[in-house]
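If I may wish for something, please sit down with the protein I am sending here and say whether tokens and residues agree:
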Amino acid sequence: MSRMSRGEIVVEGNGVKEVAGAEQSRQPGAEQNVTGAAWANEHSAARHAAASGGGWASEFAAAGGPAADIAAQFGAMRSMPGPGGTGTGGDWAGEFAGGESSLRDPAQGWADEFANVPDEWAQEYEEMQRGNPDWALENVWDQVAAEGTALRAAERSNYQFTDPNPYLGRSDALEIGRDLFHRGVLSEAGLALEAAVRGSNPELCEAWRLLGTVHAENDDDLRAIAAMTRANAADPTNLEVLLSLGVSHTNELDQDEATGHMRAWLRYQPRFAALEAEYAAGTAGRADTPASVLGLFRRAAQLAPADADVH
């Protein structure tokens, strides 16, 4: 029965007949060879038919109608010359490769697009800097710091007067204030000096300086700074005012203001002016520090060892 199922024998009349070539088919691999050869022949025939316009394309063309149009278009595509000069249905592989870039990851496309942006920004920055050198120095944080310093300076110079004041309107308020100060009556001296600066006394700087000294003696550095700032505005070269401002700002931990006033105190004295100018040239472009200004004062003390204010 197994040989009959494989087609090696057939029933013919009342007998059984062996099929020709059955002996070969029983050899190992024979059945696979026969089947493979058959498939190869069938595929070759199909390709030949397709190349010559046969096969399903010919059948559709013969049927007419829309099918015939599709078959004609297919045949035209196959007849298009491809690499090597043979009909290949058009170089669709080349078209696919050309359109491959459209199928890339969008993220990669964005990365390629912005690859040169940093260089473009740097070039724009250099052009703006060449056109406006000051622009490169402008920084929002520098501006904020400058505004903060200006605000603090405005607050420090905003002196709060005491009311009521019994010395208001007196033309001798400055003399009274000076006398009370020397006698140690600081609270009354302060009121008299406030009355002097609120009037039309011509010795405005002296009145503000004495008023600031009164508050410094009372350990009220904020009011001392406010009064001395007004005195400094009236006479920027007054050495007593500059020294007092340097000390009061040091007590309030105002580093920039303290070092600035202490350097000004040296700069406006002929014996220390050259020393301060040398220090300024050596530290150009750098911020002052308490240590650097202290070193400057030590050098000044070597020039004037008997000056108590330098020590």
